[in-house]
């Protein structure tokens, strides 16, 4: 009887030890599976997030490009509606005797240069060394609805096309028919403008109007036409 009890006790102990080993093995295997699942899930989550960021960035880039194009187009339209082009921006070249229209911040008017002449003196004064005087006959017609100051609208420049020099007209000479007073709407005024320009040129231009406040008119003439 004693022998049987010892054998049974050893059997029980062996069974208990085996069961404990199985339990530990099972726990260990479960932990490894959990770790593997966590590792495999994290990269997937990171990849998904980066993909969403990239797609969002691409979408934003597309939106920005579309917005920029729209802004540029809108700005261009605004400039066309409010810039000088709305008042007749541009340059018109004319010959002596021809009439051009000026659309300015002061009003609208027509201008014509009918005759030009080089002279040796004005008011008994000779030109500076290397220069010569030119007198131009000019006519203005007020086409706006308000009076125009003839002195203000008669600003003009002479350009020597050969040496590219330019000079503004001289203000006042007693022997000339200077522009003074207002021009009523629908009325015309004739007068003269005096210029000091450089010698040696063959091709000249008289410019009336300036791009900062109007369009520009250019009358072309040669030295032969002014002598």
UniProtKB/TrEMBL annotation:
Organism ancestry: Bacteria, Bacillati, Bacillota, Bacilli, Bacillales
Keyword Signal applies: yes
The keyword Signal belongs to this UniProt entry's keyword annotation: yes
Matching Gene3D superfamilies: 2.60.40.1240
UniProt KW keywords: Signal
Compositional bias (Acidic residues): 49-82
Protein name: Uncharacterized protein DUF4352
Pfam families listed in its UniProt record: DUF4352
Positions of the UniProt region annotated as Disordered: 29-96
DUF4352 domain span: 107-215
UniProt organism field: Aureibacillus halotolerans
Leader sequence segment: 1-26
